[in-house]
Amino acid sequence: MTIFRKVDTSMNYVTISPSKLEGEVIIPPSKSLSHRAVIASGLSKGTSIIENVMFSQDIIATCACMEALGVIIKKIKTSTNIYTLKVTGSSNLKLLQNEIDCCESGSTLRFFIPISLVHQNNVTFKGKGKLISRPLKEYYKIFDKQGIEYSTTSGNLPLKVNGSLKSDQLEIAGNVSSQFITGLLFTLPLLKDNSTISITSNLESKGYIDLTLDILSKFSINIINDNYKKFHISGNQEYKSRDLRVEGDFSQAAFWLVAGSIGGEINCLDLNSQSLQGDKEVIDVLKRMNATVKISSDSICTKTSKTKHTTIDGSQCPDIIPVLAVLASLSEGTTEIINAGRLRIKESDRLTAITTELKKLGADISEKQDGLIISGKNELNGGEVDSWNDHRIAMSLAIASLRCKNDVIIKDSSCINKSYPTFWQDFKKLGGKINEWSLG
User: Is 319 in the active site?
Assistant: First the structure.
């Protein structure tokens, strides 16, 4: 019996009164690294100890999927929603159930589709929310090439797959999602023969590929990276169990680093300044925008600054673009965000979502096909906004409230559970004035 459950939530709201945020916040563990550590340890022979894992809805989905392959995961609570996992890998990798619910986690779905086909399996992948329609064509092309049976509803979930993946010379577009590449990098070493992955377009989100290659190396899997244009994967490799601790998440730290820059002083703890995470780019952006940033070995601090405009390239750090749009809305001059078209196929169309909601608050922001143009103001008005059921939109709007004249009401505020369940608690601990309420 699985120990992981998906939790449905009612329609929740928060009302936030403008205030400064000050103090220290322990940054939650990296969601990207947690996905990868759970999967790599589950594919290993033996038992691994994975420390510092937060059970967001996305990580719960990945754990449930690994359990469906016979992986045994025991969790030990160490603090509020933080756990140590004892993961005993499965040598069989035959599915114990034929339906897999990936909830709303794109990483879970795209990583697990190829992993589930290491051996012959007949499986149906389900999801909800925007995940149902998020692109999977890169896998469909492989299925067509290898004769793997599959069926969808006009390309959308549920996806039914019957077959097994074969070693191959594969071609993958690099400008749709790096998650397809990561899913194959996890899987191809377990197949009998050697494989290659050739990238057919400019590779975006290289930082996520770096995280994958680093985790694979830690679990004794060798991949040759030919300048991010081709990956050479030897077959018949074996994952070896090991213990590791998941480092703090720069994509989550970005909210507090921006919050400190526009209204307060916040010290973000448990951040690795040498991290491979692509969202560490937030530090360079803040510096370019004249924010005061103090970096130490395991923490980063920002404080109220007179920030200015810049140009932000979203191709390698798409997840932090919504909160950087908030910063730009409150910075001197006009900021342009470029190469961010992939934000349209996230949990929401994030370019439209953040434009629509920041306009409601009084921001001067407009969208282009692949980016944003934002003319900064000293403060925004406030008002009622919608999260679009997107955790990063909800948290970005919360940060915008710090420099509003009036209260900000955020609809569907519980969507933060997807990645950062303790966000509202941390907001309050830093001095945020919020009232949570629900309908239902």
Answer: yes
